[in-house]
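for the record, two folds in this file. i put them one after another cuz i was lazy. first one right below, seq on top, structure tokens after. the second one comes after a little note so u can tell where it starts
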Amino acid sequence: MTEIVDKRAASQAPPSGRTYNEWAKNDTLEDYSLRYAPKSFRRWTPYVVATTALGGIAYLADFAIGGSIALSHGFSSAMVAILTAAVVIFLTGVPISYYSAKYSIDMDLLTRGAGFGYLGSTLTSVIYASFTFIFFALEGSIMAQALELGLHIPLAAGYIVCSLIILPLVVYGMTALSKMQVWTQPVWLVLMVAPFVSIAVQEPGKFSEFTHFAGDSPTGSTVSMLGVGAGAGVALSLIAQIGEQVDYLRFMPDKTPENGRRWWAAVLGAGPGWVVLGALKQIGGAFLAFYIAGSVGLGKANEPIQQYVHGFGTFAAPVALGLATFFVILSQVKINSTNAYSGSLSWSNFFSRLTHRHPGRVVYIFLNVGIALALMEGGVFGFLNTVLGFYSNVAIAWIGAVVADLVVNKPLKLSPSYIEFKRAHLHHFNPVGFGSMLVASAVSIAAYFEAFGAYGKAFSPFIALFLAMVLSPALAVLTKGRYYIARADDLAEPPLAADGTPSAVTLTCSVCATGFERPDMANCPFHHGAVCSLCCSLEKDCHDICKKAAAPGPVAVAPPVLRTAD
């Protein structure tokens, strides 16, 4: 059967060319959503890239999450849970951020080459897209609560407003988002910390009272291992946030001796460093929930709009409601523009592989926002802990498998030393990462549904992380790394630039007749020339003849030519 398919593909005349619609051809709109981000496009400084990436963590779900954990499990368990989750998220975020910035690729392309294969990463695209629309819905719900309280807009109508207001910003991608995030960041930071400063000055004793807060915990304010596990599981749902961070970090300039320190500061600060501010916001949300619980009740104490109305009321009572409404709206615009943007990238990757069509990233903005709107109308905020607790099991299995490949398999030479993301060089599925994620997810989800008792449920995300980290190198050894690279990269490389980084020399795609830089190109026997990664992904008539003669073999431990500076 294989021989028949090969002959059919080889004998079929390749199409004369491919054209993309205006949305897909416009680099400002498209933001290289399915490709390597070329050197010529990465014109921003490390500071601007980092500020844009960190602007996306202005979300107030952290306040709701921290408040929910403290209300459910008390002060001590909440603090241990939040800090434990933060350490895990930071450590897993370091290698992902580094490789994304080094190779100028997004989370999906990184996942392909980190043990999942070309089609294996379609599942993770859905996992990641789920993260973006779940948190869009949670953040949109918070904004709608503010609109209801401050402007008396009904929740159902507020959900629609919260969705529509994001669309104009996200359409223009990094170009528009970088300006918006940089301009609004100082205002947002001042408003975020203002209530805490006011309370510290006027009621400093509240902070010591907070350490005795029991919430609804049956064990009071003392540490409960079940509470720590359950709380950390909710906080660990944010582990996929690193995907949104690297969606921006892929636009980092190449690292050179001149910008090395600034490059590392930006990558670490805006990559894994997001969780430092995230954990502080969760602790802040826990404190504000305690602070207002006596006034609004435990049921509403985790709502950020309530927290900030009372917080601003400590120093600006006459305008507290208006100020809180403005702050919530500003925060939600900043984060949901990132959620919608990252979701459009993920859906683009998913559908381009399944349908071999790409109408443009902009189309998938509407899909992602539409799903989020449906979740908002369905009342997703009321199931915050349940939704995030379940999701964290799948997300952490995915991230754990990717990290294991980057920090274990690559140093041990069980996988290639570089990241290969192009269809022309990848197997459809790689059991190393894909298999590890499936097994880890299945076991941890079973644990979440109490297959291993109460402690198994509470610590199910940690079970997922442990299994993924162990199974990935084990499967790499068993398969001898043969499913990473389907065929060698035999396309000629241009010389490096004078600073040792890849040059911006372009090659013309033989299908779409557009110039792209070398890392985005592959040699194609079907089209008898070089093709860009997107045309390669969308080709449905070649039947992968370029890989048919290359049987799985031992892993290649080095790329054909160094593609970027260390």
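(here's the note) second protein begins now
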Amino acid sequence: MASYKRRILAWTAAATSLVLLLAGCGSSSGAVAGSQPRDGGTLIIGQYQEVTQFDPNRQYSWETWRIDRNIYETLVDEDLSSPTGVPKIVPRLATSWTVSPDATTYTFQLRKGVKFSDGTPFDAQAVQFNVRRFTDPAFEYYDKVSASTMSLVYGDLASFKVLDDYTVQYTFKHPFLDFLHQIPNSGNAASGIFSPEALKKYGQDGLADHPVGTGPFTFAERVRGDHTTLVRNQDYWGARPHLDKVIFKPIGDDQSRVAALQTGAVDLISRVPPDSVSTLEKGGYSMPENKGVPQIIYYSYNFANPFLRDKRVRQAIIEAVDRKQLAATIYKGYAEAATSIVNQGNEAYDPSAVDYPYDPAAAKKLLTDAGYQPGQVKFTILSDTTGQPTAEYLQQSLQAIGIDASVQSFEWITYGTRTANLKPEDGLYLGEWGYVAANWVQIAHKYSVVAHDGDKYSDTSAATVQAITTAAGNSDPAKSTELWQAAAQAWAKDATIFPLLSFNRYYAVSPRVGGFVWPQQDHYDLSKVWVAN
């Protein structure tokens, strides 16, 4: 702890002095980790936003799941050891599983001899307790908040059965080809298994402050706004992680986050600001490149705003923005323009898919055809603080075609509350999400359009709904990609979602860190990471 405090004091001193920050550019700190793993030590991660809560059924945001997945484990996991390719599904708390031919029934054989970090056993009854919490209103420990969140994955669940002490079975009403991918792949609706006794002891609201799982690390403490600490689970059933401790620090300010890395106060940062990539690379920091991640930056429309109920206005917004220039200028080429909601790391990604191309002249004509004069269409663009430069780029692009857009940005937690309570004058609001599973199309459509009655405001929405329904109801893996691509293309015609870009640089890693891999996924595996002395 003394070493940690010294590192934080060093960062604080540097972050408050611009001169010191500039003088430190290009320098690196700490020893080179080398190629041989070593045990022990503390890894400190600078996250770009404050996390939400450590309850797997209530949490949201990728930064939160990047912590939670070290505490809670899922029945199946992903092999995150490679930077390329859709991660392979591998056993975790389940050792094997079978899937019915119609892809509706999944039967899991559970791992024996596993205990939660509070010493209680993991078995079929523990899994049943977890599932009933968000699916069974008659259950004593049913939680409406969890039920709402978890409906993303389990909304179509027909039944759950305990077949014996170490066998469970999920049956869905319709085919669910992507269920295995969705189990470990959730920034929202995480299927991490918690200790039933912990929830009984601490209550629905208390589990987040006393998280208990079976993972390689256990929760030590959280000081909101400052840090969360995990320590190695000494009784972990699986391979022993190298690290003694992991500390996650929320550092919302871009330059402060970079300064913390340069001074050695942290060892790894997320959401690296584009202006810092070159400097950090020259300073010896690793900046892994990945053009296949499932994460995507996009904007949703507020259909309560009368201007945005007109498809011509929404289409004009898309055609007004040069997404390639956005990636090249604001993001210095460290991002890829997105012209489909199907992100680059998705199983159904189609590089040829395009919604509406950049064409400001056509955008102006659409507004004229809709009966609007320059300056008549007005709305607010909502963003978190990290995405403000993107929002301002949109603002300028829209002003060029005669739309009067203003920008409001908030820190992450406040932003989440603000977008859950949209005002009529709000127009666009930022999203950062995406999955490797092809049914991401259905999830995104549900949350950005269906939940806000957006299908009412497109003359082509019936075709979209039909295409999504067809893809979701398919039980043949060989047809999945083609059907989901068709659904995405049908949806693109509605102009009810506005995809922008995906990052190809996201993390910066100190030379003292070894074993870190940025996989084709929105999270990473810390169990094989180590630090030099």
